[in-house]
Structures
1.
Amino acid sequence: MWRIIHQFGSPPWVYRFCDRVIPWLLPLTAVALIVGSAWGLLFAPTDYKQGDSYRIIYIHVPAAVVSLAGYYIMAFAGLVSLVWRIKLADLAMRAAAPIGAAFTAVALITGAIWGKPTWGAWWVWDARVTSMLILFFLYVGVIALFEAYDNKTIAARACAILSLVGTVNIPIIYKSVDWWYSLHQPASIKFTGSSAIDASMLYPLLGMIVAFYALFALLMMLNLKQSLTSEYAQSNWLIKRITT
Amino acid sequence: MQFDSFAAAVTMGGHGGFVWAAYAITSVVILVMIVRPVLSTRSMQDTIQREFERKQAHEKDAS
């Protein structure tokens, strides 16, 4: 156990790990995304109420799910970086921020496009939509805050604190559809009890959620490799690895 | 297949514009997110490689 933790704190080991995993995770993710999209777009049945506009669900929900999971990862990495001062945790936190921001933006944009034919408006100041917008600003805030400091040690600490404070927003997003009277529909997928969605629509949705998680992992590794390359450009292990 | 023809899959009963736009925007975002770190890493690796070769050539000259 300690050996595994130790390895995840070692930049050369993580670099090699990314190098080994990316070549098969990239094609796997691409295939999963293409198959999942084709399934959702062309083969899943048409919704009896919303017609075909509901097909946006196959990117909207996975993007939203992963944008929340990404925040956990960013905040957890921030906590580790704050407490144990591990360089890699700091890099992981910064790797997660732009990915999370992009997924949140995708969830908001696809939500707006879905909202137009369904609610009759591109945007509503609804509890779920607004709390997701706050999530987007939290991600962007972490990125901007890091850039704002010249001293990168202090910058990383400030980002970690901001991302930890921002976690209060996560349960608000989850519960927003229950706590407030909301236009946004409540969760259709339930871990306990039966889901409010038919299997023919549920399976492609679950498939796309898995594909988006794989995409998140892939993007995390690509970003980590990039920041490791820039951070350790002068280190012997990296020069050796690249030049041989 | 839910649609009888290519045209039906494109229009989706009037919702096609919304659905395809959502998928197109998402695809572009995903592609940019993948390509950007790959290109940036590659260019940094090239710099490190060149620097290494330059140093080696320098050492050979010195000896």
Note: Residues 17-62 of chain B form one domain.
2.
Amino acid sequence: MSDARHLFSLDTAPPQTQNTIVSINCQGPVRRRLMDMGLTPGTQVAVEGAAPLGDPIIVWARGCRLALRCGEAAQITVAPTMDITESSKWLESCSSGRKHRHRQGQRGGGRRRRRQRGNRGSM
Amino acid sequence: MPNAAANTTADTTPVVATLPVIAIAGNPNSGKTALFNAITGARQHVGNWPGVTVERKEGLIKRDGNEALLVDLPGTYAFGSRALDETIARDFIVNENPDVVINVVDSTHLERNLYLTLQLLEMDVPVIIALNMYDEANSLNLQIDVEKLSELLEVEVIPTVAVDGKGVDKLVCSAMRIAHANQGRKEQLKTRIAKRTPIIDYGKTIEAEIALLGKHLVDAYESNQGLYWRWQAIKLLEADIAIPKKFESVIDISAARGKTAHDLKAEVAEARARIRQVSGAEAIDLITEARYSHAARIAEAVIGQDSDPAKSSSYAIDRIVLNPWLAYPIFFGVIWVMFKITFTLSEPIAEWFVTLFDMFGSIVRGILMGIGVPLLLVDFLVDGIISGVGAVLEFAPPIFLLFLVISILEDIGYMARAALLSDRLMRAVGLHGKAFIPMILGFGCNVTGILATRSLDSPRDRLISILINPLISCAGRLPVYVLFATAFFKEKRSLVVFSLYAMGVLLAALAAKILSLFIEPDASSTFVLELPPYRMPRISAVLTHTWERGKEFLHKAGTVILLAVAIVWILANMPPGTGPGSPESFIGRIGTAIAPVFKPAGFGTWEAAVALMFGVVAKELIIGTLGVLYSASDASLTLAIQGAWTPLSAYAFMMMVLVYVPCVATIASIRRETGSWQWTTLAVAYTLVLGWILAVLVYQIGMLIGLG
């Protein structure tokens, strides 16, 4: 899926970048909970920021914002998604609340994200 | 609040078997409750699901002469057996066979919500979709192709805006039509579609196993039951731990038909092993992924290409609210404003209440005397019951105001941020961020706080939150502080009152820490919280929520406290011939017997002992009891108290009132929510012992350093 050197856990992922979930490394109820909330392997996820004390962190996945503890995020292995520039532009414009900036970019980014998810098997 | 008032009228409509049943299912934050309220209005009844303490809401729908029963299922993200809520929702659908399920879907979070929808459709129950918050999707420039969605899911989809009632009528009519069409039919005939094709294709490996298991299940049923067997096969592959009742019967049937239950279970295990071998992953993971991918595909297909999923202003707001420098100042500022509003605004209303009850009392006295009722009975009714209950109802304004502010903050979406911000702090003492809301509610009434712990997923987090909640100083304790602090500390009284509130929080944190060391960690404790977008609060929703929380308190005033007030009065005035509240009365004798216990704490008077005793019934009664006991010998309560206490013993007494034994209503709710007498006993015992020790420590240390 991705070069092993580029794998890191979600809590250490640089903010405002698109990442793809590679695996969830815990078992039992916590795994179920994470997956039921949409954090399944192959999902695009971006760290948006952290609470003021650094924990929990806020991530953006499947059109939703989720808060999760660093301990839980550490169980999620991610790899950076290829076209970082497009997505980060998209994210940046979202999180800055400036709706009209990069309008074209947003659209492209939004669709691209979906496409990636659709055929992630080939990545 | 006419709606709310009607709710309390005990229309405990039993589930009439002949009525069609409509269930509402959906994600948390999807507007499910708003839709339920919009449909049923006043005709609803709140109870509990059998055997558990999760709230069950039911309502009656009447449309064009037809009736149906509407059942609100707990809001869930999935239908597994991971959490109690999910099990309840799933078991209701499987075991009770609702005639139609209204699935509330948040249009602004289509993909995530469809994950639940797909599971619902797999269960092969008749479904109708309420595409809720349709206005918000529009304002976010999300164009959803409703027809296409309906076509892809093969069910009816109706856009709604539950909070404004838009689309609700259409939804109800369609639901009623489907429900009536399905009612009375055998479950296998309740169809959602004519064309019965599986909604999700799980891929070759899993589909093969589903078919194999399905064959056994169909054999067991002797009929193919629509696609219901398919769902069962999927669930078995998912290794859902808690098997719904109906599954057991299937396993029984298969046992009777020569295939033992053990065989079926072994076959499931083999099937899972084969999947693991072929695909290198657990069946449940593959199934979850497949469902989410399918949800994503549908969402992509129905969201218009012109849609600009630009984010709402929530991001901009969160940049401030969650800003590293501003977050905590805002957080504590909000809490400060909340208390300021609660206590400042409630004062005039509470005074107005007192005047009202005094007036009511004298009118009743006049009428009763006029018609010749004996004086003793008049005294009992007016001085005992009316003024006693009045004294308690004085606390309704601050409690309701606090709950109102909390409900507004919840409706806006701030409470999810507050849970996020407090998680790190709460975790330091072994608590969960979501335990923040129950704690804040506890400042109003501990019963409400304890009920609110239901939002916590992990049983352990919940237990700890329940056990420490009584240490949060509820509104009933405030008048004791105010009276004593005013009598003894004059200009420093605010500081004294604040110190007690702070002490309560500190002790709660300490108790949580200690409990968390002894109660085994729970593997299921997670903090995965959806941050909902900020929304304008809707008056009706806020008022309904406030009422639902506050009515616990009114209920308490109307039952437990009413009874206790009557007993206090009788004990204080019996045996006949003794002066009211004199040491010779029954109450005086009991108090005299207990008083020595409190001698080391500096308040070993029988009056104090009696007041504390009745404070167990309701903390609000402490002042009332002291009033009754001292008014016999002294005109002003403040003067009487200044005579019997010193500043030091007064502080010790306030400390005792803060910590000792939760009131009866709180004890009852601890019992109900924990389901265990042991934990309830522990809660009572530790607070009693801790309260006494702290009161004695305050007094003795104070004496030692010469404050006495």
Note: Chain A touches chain B through 46 residues (CB under 8 Å).
